[in-house]
Amino acid sequence: MPFQEILSRYEAGENAFGLTLEKWVKIRESLKNAFTMPHYREILGAAMIKVPLFLENQDNCAVCPLQAICSRGQEGSFGKFMRAIQAYCIAGDLLPKPLCLG
Predict the structure, then answer these.
(1) Residue 82 contacts by C-beta under 8 Å, 6 or more apart in sequence?
(2) For residue 69, which of 14, 23, 44, 77 is within the disulfide window of CB 3.0 to 4.6 Å?
(3) pLDDT value of residue 96
């Protein structure tokens, strides 16, 4: 989901937390079907897109519902996750599809 779509939906009144969840559910689903490097690059790009939940709380992390996992500017769970997804997306899981489903 491109950032512009997320922003448009947010500005139309959709819930920031709901949009954040939708983004990450789509990323999780995409990982299940990714078998080529372009797929992994697309997933990495999607993971790096900021969502309205971040934009709403960027100046006040203490009130953000994701503060405990985000730990912006520190070595938090989200930072570790992003490094892991970057490594995974760079290396990829390039096994043939039948072997991956095995």
Answers:
(1) 47, 48
(2) 77
(3) 53
> What are phi and psi for residue 49, nearest 5 degrees?
-70, 130
Tokens (6 digits) for 34: 């990714």
Question: For 53-57, 88-92, 97-101, which range has the lowest pLDDT when averaged over its residues?
Answer: 97-101
Q: How far apart are CA 69 and CA 60, in angstroms?
A: 15
| Residue spans per domain, the chain | 3-95
Q: Are 54 and 90 in contact (CB under 8 A)?
A: no
What's the angle, vertex CA 18, arms to CA 77 and CA 70, rounded to 5? Answer: 15
Cα–Cα nearest to 85, from 21, 53, 40, 49: 40
